[in-house]
Amino acid sequence: xxxxxxxxxxxxxxxxxxxxxxxxxxxxxxxxxxxxxxxxxxxxxxxxxxxxxxxxxxxxxxxxxxxxxxxxxxxxxxxxxxxxxxxxxxxxxxxxxxxxxxxxxxxxxxxxxxxxxxxxxxxxxxxxxxxxxxxxxxxxxxxxxxxxxxxxxxxxxxxxxxxxxxxxxxxxxxxxxxxxxxxxxxxxxxxxxxxxxxxxxxxxxxxxxxxxxxxxxxxxxxxxxxxxxxxxxxxxxxxxxxxxxxxxxxxxxxxxxxxxxxxxxxxxxxxxxxxxxxxxxxxxxxxxxxxxxxxxxxxxxx
Amino acid sequence: xxxxxxxxxxxxxxxxxxxxxxxxxxxxxxxxxxxxxxxxxxxxxxxxxxxxxxxxxxxxxxxxxxxxxxxxxxxxxxxxxxxxxxxxxxxxxxxxxxxxxxxxxxxxxxxxxxxxxxxxxxxxxxxxxxxxxxxxxxxxxxxxxxxxxxxxxxxxxxxxxxxxxxxxxxxxxxxxxxxxxxxxxxxxxxxxxxxxxxxxxxxxxxxxxxxxxxxxxxxxxxxxxxxxxxxxxxxxxxxxxxxxxxxxxxxxxxxxxxxxxxxxxxxxxxxxxxxxxxxxxxxxxxxxxxxxxxxxxxxxxx
DNA sequence: ATATCTTGTTCTCCAAATTAGAACAATTGA
DNA sequence: TCAATTGTTCTAATTTGGAGAACAAGATAT
Lengths: 302, 302
Prior knowledge:
- The structure is a homodimer.
- Chain A is built from eleven helices and 14 strands.
- By secondary structure, the first copy, chain A, is an alpha/beta fold.
- The longest helix of chain A is centred in the N-terminal third of the chain and has 28 residues, at 60-87.
- Helix content of chain A is 43%, strand content 23%.
- In chain A, helix 5 links the parallel strand 3 (92-98) and strand 4.
- In chain A, the strands form five sheets. The first copy, chain A, has a five-stranded mixed beta sheet, with helices on one face. A three-stranded antiparallel beta sheet of chain A has the order 12-7-13.
- Chain A has three domains: 3-85, Winged helix-like DNA-binding domain superfamily/Winged helix DNA-binding domain (Arc Repressor Mutant, subunit A, Orthogonal Bundle), CATH 1.10.10; 89-161 and 265-300, D-Maltodextrin-Binding Protein, domain 2; 163-256, D-Maltodextrin-Binding Protein, domain 2 (3-Layer(aba) Sandwich), CATH 3.40.190.10.
- Chain A has helices at 3-16, 19-26, 30-44, 60-87, 100-117, 134-137, 169-175, 223-231, 241-250, 279-292, 297-300; strands at residues 49-52, 55-58, 92-98, 121-127, 141-146, 153-161, 163-167, 189-192, 202-203, 209-210, 216-220, 237-240, 254-256, 265-272.
- Chain A starts with a helix and ends with a helix.
- The A-B interface holds A 1-5, 7, 43-46, 61, 64-65, 68-69, 71-72, 75-76, 79-80, 83-84, 86-88 and B 1-5, 7, 43-46, 61, 64-65, 68-69, 71-72, 75-76, 79-80, 83-84, 86-88.
- The structure holds a DNA duplex.
């Protein structure tokens, strides 16, 4: 391999935070990464990353070198893929990190369509609900559902993400149907773990905001699981429409306090700032933004 | 090898004007160059150089690609050699094309000193009097002795290049010593072949310009040879001081019409415009400019 | 018109380069 | 204190890439 490949290995080590993680992400042995890095340092006559056992840190020279070569690597990628894409069908790999529920239920079919349009592309999907640092982990982009976008990254909104409260008919028959937000305090909930999911602000039809206590009998970090528990009558759930839409349509769940509204989130594709975005990645983002848009099909079905 | 090395091979093919010459300059087999170029074109999905048997021409895509990657290759070279040179003794290669006479008599000792100061450098010297296209032939720089500098290249003057007229004592005893430029028409000359060397403009002490006919009994393209012929009494010679200085000092030749002057040329180092000049090359140019300067040692000895 | 020379292509063999994996030292965390 | 993890180094295996031969085709010289 060559000079630019050595540089790319170095960049990966820096962004991954270590040789072992870089090796995992690059799919090569850590001995190979170690050797490539050592040879780059030898060629430059200076240490780029100071390593002790179990830690590695950029030196001052390494930091400067990293800033400079990052631009060069992007330029080469841009020059070559712009030329290639002018002449050819899209090829290459796209690494995406997406939340589990959204990924399984919505991105799957969408990716299927996209790949049919661009059969020479390869998609590498990471489905999980953990927070992903796309630079550190070497992703092209990630889907994030949130209110605020991180200022250090670029984001493209692809659709709104509304929430509704719902419960099973059996549960409501047993516990009664809440008429006002205050009534909620007499009920049980299944809620998301972590963060501040248990503390929701609900806005009633008159525009008044409420902050009801919602005692959780079941807590989990997975929306599909919570949906199952709600359908089984274990409590009411506040959940995204993109999760609950089919259960509502089937009558397995019934919307509660439908005139009230919950804080609205958005789904964004995020990608690294100041980094060349290959055309195939841009096309995928455009494709998804168009496919979902401001009134996605699951909201239209309600 | 890698992506950047493929690009460097491509650049060399473009600038050399063909795969065979590029292979010669790179020191690898033309089959290897052919294969590298083909693989680069395959990766980009487009033809960069259209080849028929015995000719090759840049395509439109190739021209654009060449312009863009040239900058990138320079940037990488700059980033890495600036970092390297900050930390280390100078290393690397310098390829220089120099005129034969000047190279043998003056650059040799100078290079010897320079290499003693920077022992890890490697000098690749091409000595000839032919016109060298430094970009096409892959030189870092060339020494050129001329009046005008080519506008498409960068030049750094390293010293003036004065000419004098001289003849052997025997010749002058036999033929008489010319007193005025007009007297020259009664004499024989040994002169440079090609160009307009046989048509000199001499300026007398009063500032008047003369254009004497100087019949040549011996013509050659090498100044050292002409010096020998002049010392042997075959005629008078107009020659650079850097060639004739020792023969004058030794009494083998005597200056003729010393109050007159000849068009003054300069010695320049020339190097490619818009191309990163490694520090080692810049240091060599500085070294030579300082070593010779406005009154080089051979002019001081006269 | 023909022969020779030169360029670029393609293929095969072999040497060189590079990776995987094992073994190890050393630090960190349980 | 022990186990886990990181990074380094070495060796064997695998992959890559160059050299050189053979060839096609165009240009040049005779």
